[in-house]
Design goal:
This protein has 257 residues and is of the alpha+beta class. The chain folds into 2 domains: 116 residues, Alpha-Beta Plaits (2-Layer Sandwich); 133 residues, 2-Layer Sandwich (Alpha-Beta Plaits). It contains 6 helices and 9 strands. It holds the Pfam family PseudoU_synth_1.
């Protein structure tokens, strides 16, 4: 039987989600916890990859396990076993073919900037003190919705079949000394959000114009886009699925019992 896991983590001490040799990853840490508690080799698949230092307020992953277990008890044991920077919120059964990565319909990221130095947020937001034109940055962000090819914001030499993404929303808000950029799309390219934020900052500093921003996107050239902002300000905040589709799959599972 296949199960979805809803979890969150502080990415400060990890080299991203995906397992890597000779480096701590969230996936490896989760595999070890599940395998130890369930006394079986468990390989967890994530809904996506986050880079070194990136955080996730909401992440989904899945695993297969055929022996019945008490979900509430397993969640409690996992949260006792896992390090303090990873938490499991929920585990629930889905259809055998359900996939946390391929069945996701929408993903949302936030980028957090502190405009005044905060000693307690050094690894959870990026300190940037220069004054930014937030209205202009929001104009540029809104124009992202008019495009689909975002090769200019993608890490070079990445192995993808297409650079097309459907962006549903992109905007900045100000909360006291914090600036927060929110962006949602059906999929994201490697380093895409961080390079978009860096380019929007150049807009906010009046280093480039809105017309320049459009030309950068049309160029499909990463060298023409802005710098990539530090990873520690980036959060994966939400992953959405077709809930009705998942519920129907759960009904199928009940029918098989």
């Amino acid at each position: 039987m296949r199960y979805f896991i809803k979890l969150a983590y502080n990415g400060t001490l990890y080299h991203g989600w995906q397992h890597q040799p000779n480096a701590a990853s969230v996936q490896e840490t989760m595999n070890k916890a599940f395998s130890t508690i369930l006394n079986s080799q468990i390989n967890i698949m994530g809904a996506g990859r986050t880079d070194t230092g990136v955080h996730a307020k909401e992440m989904y992953a899945h695993f297969d396990f055929d022996t019945p277990f008490d979900i509430t008890s397993l969640i409690h044991k996992l949260n006792s076993f896992l390090p303090k920077d990873i938490v499991v919120y929920a585990i629930f059964p889905v259809a055998d073919e359900a996939h946390t990565r391929f069945d996701a319909t929408k993903r949302t990221y936030e980028y957090h900037i502190n405009t005044f130095k905060d000693a307690f947020l050094q690894e959870q937001s990026w300190y940037f003190y220069q004054k930014l034109d937030l209205d202009l940055m929001n104009e540029a962000a809104k124009s992202l919705l008019n495009h689909t090819d975002f090769q200019c914001f993608s890490k070079v030499n990445t192995d993808v079949n297409t650079f097309d993404c459907s962006i549903f929303e992109a905007y900045w808000i100000k909360e006291n000394n914090k600036l927060i950029f929110t962006i949602s799309a059906n999929r994201f390219l490697r380093n895409m959000v961080r390079s978009i934020v860096g380019t929007l900052i150049n807009i906010g500093l009046h280093k480039i114009t809105l017309n320049d921003f459009e030309k950068i996107i049309e160029s499909k050239n990463r060298d023409k886009a802005g710098f990539s902002v530090p990873a520690h300000g980036l959060y994966l905040t939400k992953i959405e699925y077709d809930l009705e589709k998942i519920e129907k799959r759960e009904e199928k599972i009940e029918d098989k019992k």
